[in-house]
Design a protein that fits this description.
Two copies of one chain form a homodimer. Chain A is α/β, with parallel strands linked by helices. In chain A, 42% of the residues lie in helices and 16% in strands. At the A-B interface, helix 4, helix 5, strand 2, helix 6 and helix 11 of A face helix 4, helix 5, strand 2, helix 6 and helix 11 of B. The structure holds a DNA duplex.
DNA sequence: ACAATTTGCGCAAACGTTTGCGCATGTCAC
DNA sequence: GTGACATGCGCAAACGTTTGCGCAAATTGT
């Protein structure tokens, strides 16, 4: 009656050892019982009852550090994102964290801030901490480090990836996204298109450009003019690129911004110039954000399938971790089609 | 020449043991040298050089799990937020993660989704994982669990807190925020104010209400009317509360939304009613978000000092962890004044 | 040449688990 | 009464570290 309400239940000092002493059973037996392997190891009813009761009473929680050391399994996975601040990544992180929790894993979070050294640090730290797996939004252009890491522990890339590697990834189908955005602009009657791109070297960016250009070329309409400009997923880039073309002799009648940040910059420039959206100029963006619906006008955009990306990547990783060897049925490089959400900006 | 470029450098199999074998020095010596305690333990120059060289060559990384078991220090801290999705929390998380990284800690992230059971799960998990400390945005109204936890491991609350506890926290000075927002509205000439509140039971909410009411009462202007309505930090709440009062016999001429989400809902309602901001109705919000500047009109708001909160809390926690006992000079319950950012919405 | 001191390093225990193996005792068949 | 098998449980090693203690050899003092 007082053991279960003991006010001084120093929450941390309980161990198999202490329970063993109090119940009179050996540490091994206690361990097996509390691991739920009582039956399996033919531990008697008496023992099982006594031990579970005592564990309950003293609020025993296994030391996952010790367990991890012994079993080499930490039930922890590492997640790197280039900026948890960025709504797209925090959304991904949220999905992944919650999905992973359901599967019995905790997450170690690292923010790489788009810096390769920080990414390297984070990955090394993950290794030292013996994570069971890693989900990463890679920064930088070289897969080297990640490939090395993936020889020690399962790695799944999300959102970004490297060409010519076997590293598994799941990302948006950026080509398709570029294609659909551009087709939408063309369908709406725009004929002088400008794409403002982000980080030039990143695959997502390259794919979007490819989609953009293919859409124009395959449109069958020889009258369409188009250009690609800009460098960097920043609103400065959006602002300056837009300003430049608006003041040039050949201003576009529609802008395809490769990210929300770029779009915001463009929007500012357009407003400064006093142009009306969507009549003077149309705009379409690439990203998710609930705020986009509250802008004036609400922004038409290609939304990335963040939930699917997050869930697919997590499932994939967990399969790699727990799977009885690589199950060959597993496709390791997946891209998921984004979808158009119409605002009134084009 | 080839040991440092060994392609088969199985990144994980290196241990003090293997280095010990290859160098001929004992595990203890290797440990001491690699811990940088060579001098301190009077290890010879030869040994130090050989060992560091070998460790370098084979890219040795200490096993932090084993180290943690032995030293009872994991250099990991747990962070719970009620929704990493929410820009305010992801912003906090970002600040904390990065600040903590600089101090040599990694972070275990848990999303509690505003649910007390999930918070309890997360905290227990943190305990099992032997985190060195915890930073939490508590959900729920009862400090019980967190107080119990804080007897085992340092805990610092952020953003929200409990009255009548000694749990250390650092949060926005919500009273001051409520006060300044309301004073601003009054200064701008509004005379019929409506506050749309969030979670009624939370301290931040209560304090904002108190600030709101005090500002009106202390204004010396008997002509000012005011009311508080709503329940929940959601846009639905914002929308419905606004709709109701706009359709009532006594519509307000200014709205003080207690969060961005609430503000967005209110904004929708106002637009639907065809009212002009700020002439027909003024609006002021409470939160941070870069998007607020891109709305039409840009929203005037009380910005929370997230960076200070994050950094202060982190420093506080680390001091508690590493400090030579509680340094008495330490004030444990801190609130930081938010500041007004003017848009054109009132 | 011998004691005292310093220098350089290793032994072994400990952290809290898990798990292969094996030892008692009890039960049954004959 | 003996062998065979089932039942119930414990011993001890192992995971990779850190660290108190202490021992041997080298150096110094006298």
């Amino acid at each position: 009656m007082d053991s279960e309400t003991d006010p001084e239940a120093m929450t941390s000092k309980e161990s198999l050892q202490t329970i063993s002493e109090r119940t009179g059973y050996s540490v091994s037996t206690v361990s097996r019982v509390l691991a739920g392997k009582g039956e399996q190891y033919r531990i008697g009813r008496r023992a099982i009852e006594t031990i579970t009761a005592e564990a309950q009473a003293c609020n025993y929680r296994p030391d996952l550090i010790a367990k991890g050391l012994r079993t080499r399994k930490t039930n922890t996975i590492g997640l790197t994102v280039p900026g948890i601040d960025n709504p797209f990544f925090s959304n991904l992180a949220s999905i992944i964290t919650n999905h992973l929790k359901g599967l019995g894993y905790n997450i170690l979070l690292a923010d790489t801030m788009e810096a390769e050294e920080m990414e390297a640090d984070a990955l090394n730290s993950f290794l030292s901490r013996k994570v069971d797996g890693i989900i990463a939004v890679p920064v930088g252009e070289s897969p080297e480090m990640l490939e090395r890491i993936s020889r020690s522990v399962p790695v799944v890339l999300i959102d970004r990836y490297f060409p010519d590697t076997t590293l598994p990834y799941v990302c948006t189908d950026n080509y398709y996204g570029g294609l659909s955005a551009t087709r939408h602009l063309i369908r709406k009657g725009y004929r002088n298109l400008l794409a403002i791109q982000g980080v030039l070297t990143s695959m997502p960016n390259k794919e979007r450009v490819r989609g953009f250009e293919d859409a124009v070329r395959n449109s069958g309409d020889k009258g369409i003019r188009y250009a690609v400009t800009g460098d960097g997923f920043s609103s400065e880039n959006g602002y300056e690129s837009t300003m430049k073309v608006l003041e040039s002799g050949n201003p576009p009648d529609a802008i395809f911004a490769f990210s929300t940040t770029i779009m915001l910059g463009a929007l500012t420039a357009i407003r400064e110039k006093g142009l009306k959206i969507p009549d003077d100029i149309g705009i379409i963006s690439f990203d998710n954000n609930r705020f986009l619906d509250y802008l004036d006008p609400p922004i038409t955009r290609i939304e990335q399938p963040a939930p699917q990306i997050g869930r697919t990547a997590t499932d994939m990783l967990v399969k790699m971790i727990e799977g009885s060897q690589m199950e060959d049925s597993m496709e390791g490089q997946i891209s998921i089609r984004p979808f158009l959400v119409e605002g009134r900006s084009c």
